[in-house]
Amino acid sequence: MHALPLMVSRVHLAGEVSIHSPGRRNQAAAVVGLVALVISIAGSGVPAFWSDEVATLRAVRLSWQELFAFVEHKDAVHAAYYSLLKLWVGMFGESELATRSLSALAVGAAAAGLVVLVTSMTSLRVAVIAGVIFAVLPRTTSMGIEARSFALSAAVAVWVTIVLLVAARTRDWRWWAFYTVTVAAGTYIFLYTVLILAVHFVFLLLDYRARRVLAAWLFAASSAVVAALPILVVSVQQKEQIAWLSDLPVVTIWTIFAKPAFDGSWLVAALAWCALLVLAFRCRRIWSGPHGSAFRLAASWFSVPLVVLLTADALVGPLYNARYLSFTAPAVAVLLAIAFTLSARAIVVWALIGVLVLASAPTYISQRGPFAKDGGSDLSQIADYIHSNAAQGDGIYLQDTGKSTLRPRLALYAYPTAFISTEDIAFEAPFTTTGTFSDETRSLDEIESNLVRLERIWVVTAGSTGTDAVRKINAAFHSMGFFDTSSHQTNRSVITLYER
Fold first, then answer.
1. What residues form DSSP beta bridges with 156?
2. Is the pLDDT of residue 449 over 70?
3. How much is the pLDDT for 2?
4. Quick one: which H or E segment has residue 186?
5. How distant, in Å, are the alpha carbons of 40, 100, 249, 437, 439 from that of 430?
6. Is the pLDDT assigned to residue 236 strictly greater than 50?
7. 240-270 burial by CB neighbour count: b if 16+ within 10 A, else e?
8. CA triplet 124, 130, 135: central angle to 5 degrees?
9. CB-based contacts of 236: which residues, under 8 Å, 6+ apart?
């Protein structure tokens, strides 16, 4: 096989080759990757876990046999990611920092790869700027502290595109085989990564010089789809697990044009779209200029998955979620890098980057607050309070009704060791028997027989004191001979101690 991508000269698909110092490029890629890693991992241990990450934790705690049996009914599309993270937490533990650090590493790998990729198509200057922009985009700094597979999908998308360019240049079947394997593996890690094939197809069609490798690409891409067919089929069979999307306004102007790359930052979105509009006005000149190939790739990468996903969402049911397009964030970074470097003056370019960094800072800081996840997840706050105040043998009752992402019982799933001294009075059967990530629990009407030996019970309900849920639970425990003696308000839950 020819040299690895990091050692490939700068290549335009026209066959023009301008030599860059591999050492200089590799150093730049390593530095940018390290910076992106540090930016993402900083503060990643602060926010409490939230419901999606709780699902990850519950899956990776299973034995291998239990995990593979579970994904036959639920979350098969995440089986590969759960397997990777299971190995990861086996080495580093399951703290917030440990579980999220794999995503931070993936962000670093994606940023480093972006430098390599863009350098192979245009200049090292644009490549470094693209890597820096990618590192600070709100979507990047969000997926970098999420124990889910989005960051890995971005890294796969970047590196598989590098493999495509190397295979197109060398026309070596071994690179095409590697391309097939990488695309298939990426699809198993995160299903929507398969959309990178549509990106590559459009890119090859747009670049007339690359059409000569289209037949080889079609064979490699078809092979990747065949290899990924099992997970594609299972995803259809388990499509009910994303049925919740139909209950949310997930397809709006905001979620289409802002959320995929800019998360919740309207300021970054506004600045970025101003730059992208300038880019659109200069499109013809850029198309035929030295950045043309990189522009065509990034424009395809940004737009094609969005269009395909929105079309599928409209035709076959709820499929769209802005986070599912996280792997297109590198493309946005490349487009912004090209837009910023339209000015020949370095001071202007770095001033634009500085403005983008400053605009991203409020979102970055808010993403790393203790209640940053899911609009205020307080699961660690609940766990810490119970761990500090509960006595050995106390009962624990955590509300398991209401909106699934807000249920206080998630605290028990996220931080089980904090509740080890207490008795879970509502527990009926483990989640592995329910086909969901929730245990089977008893209702308030069914728990009285479990209270005979208990003198104290900690009750955690969603919301604040005075809500209907709290009053209902209060009345239920009063009828069973328990009376509230203290109450503690967390960020979005109430912890009440009941005693006989």
1. none
2. yes
3. 42
4. helix 173-189
5. 34, 25, 33, 9, 5
6. yes
7. eebeeeeeeebbeeebbbbbbbbbbbebbbe
8. 130
9. none
